[in-house]
Amino acid sequence: MKQVTSVLIGAGLRGGYVYSRYALEHPNELKVVAVAEPDQIRREAFAFRHNIPKDMQFKSYEELLSRERMADCAMICTQDRMHAEPVIRAMEKGYHVLCEKPMSPEKDEILKMGEFSRKYNRILSVCHVLRYSPFFTSVKSLLEEGRIGQLMSIQHIEEVGYWHQAHSFVRGNWRNAKESSPMILQKCCHDMDILLWLSGSHCKTISSCGGLTYFKEQNAPSEAPGYCMDGCDHRDDCPFYAPKFYLEHPKAEEDGLIYAVTDMTDTDSILRALRRGPYGRCVFHCDNTVVDHQSVEIEFENEVTASFLMTAFTNRCARRIRLMGTKGELSGDMEAGTIELIDFVSNSLEVIQLHTSAKGHSGSDMSMMRDFVKMIGEGKPGKTDASMSVESHLMALAAEDARVNKVTVDFKEYV
Question: The Gfo/Idh/MocA-like oxidoreductase C-terminal domain covers which part of the protein (predicted)?
Answer without folding.
Answer: 140-398
